[in-house]
Structure formats: C-alpha cells, structure tokens
Amino acid sequence: MATVPEFEFRTSSACQYNNNDPRCVEVATNIPGKVAVRSTVTGRTVEFTAEEWTDFLSGARLGEFDVAA
C-alpha cells in the first residue's frame, strides 16, 4: 500500500505572527492537485482542488471578497 503524503504547511507572508495573538493562515501546496488551508488558532484544515484555489486567488485579487465598510 502506498504511503499518503502529509501536507507541509507554510505561514502566509502577510502574517505578523505574535505569540500573544497567533492568528495566522497556513497553506500547503506540496501535494499535486490539492491545496490545504489551516488556521493557527483552531488547527482546522480546509482542502481545495488546485483549480478551486486558483479561482479563489483570482477572485481575491479582483476584490470579489472585499468587505464593504
């Protein structure tokens, strides 16, 4: 039986990690076709296909998820 690789998370470059307030997002892209996103607070992980992740990033760059003040 083949070994299933584990996600290798890296912290977002936008994160200003602070030990007193460790709210950051970590992303793993080491498994072909998959992207995992994890919260440093809860440890919860959400998985996306590579296509879903690319579509999300494109939308974010265009401001689709901006919150109106």
Broad shape? flat
Number of helices: 1
Computed CA radius of gyration, to the nearest angstrom: 14 Å
Total count of strands? 4
Largest beta-sheet characterization: 4 strands, antiparallel
What is the H/E string? EEEEH
What assembly state would you assign to the polypeptide chains in this entry?
Answer: single chain
**Fraction of residues in β-strands:** 15-25%
What topology, given as strand order, has the largest sheet?
1-2-3-4
Average pLDDT metric: 87
Secondary-structure-based class equals alpha+beta
Which spans have pLDDT < 50 for at least 5 consecutive residues?
Answer: none
End-to-end gap: 52 Å
**What is the count of distinct domains?**
1
Query: Helicity range of the residues?
Result: 10-25%
Organism: Streptomyces corynorhini
Domain DUF397: 9-61
Protein name: DUF397 domain-containing protein
List the helices and strands and how they pair.
Layout: E1 10-11, E2 25-28, E3 34-39, E4 45-49, H1 50-61
Antiparallel strand pairs: 1-2, 2-3, 3-4
InterPro entries: DUF397 (IPR007278)
Domain DUF397: 9-61
Pfam families: DUF397
Structural commentary:
The protein has one helix at 50-61; strands at residues 10-11, 25-28, 34-39, 45-49. The chain is an alpha+beta fold and 69 residues long. It has one domain (10-61). The protein has a four-stranded antiparallel β-sheet with strand order 1-2-3-4. Strand 2 and strand 3 form a beta hairpin.
Summary, kept brief:
By secondary structure, the chain is α+β, with helices and mostly antiparallel strands. It has one helix spanning 50-61, and strands spanning 10-11, 25-28, 34-39, 45-49.
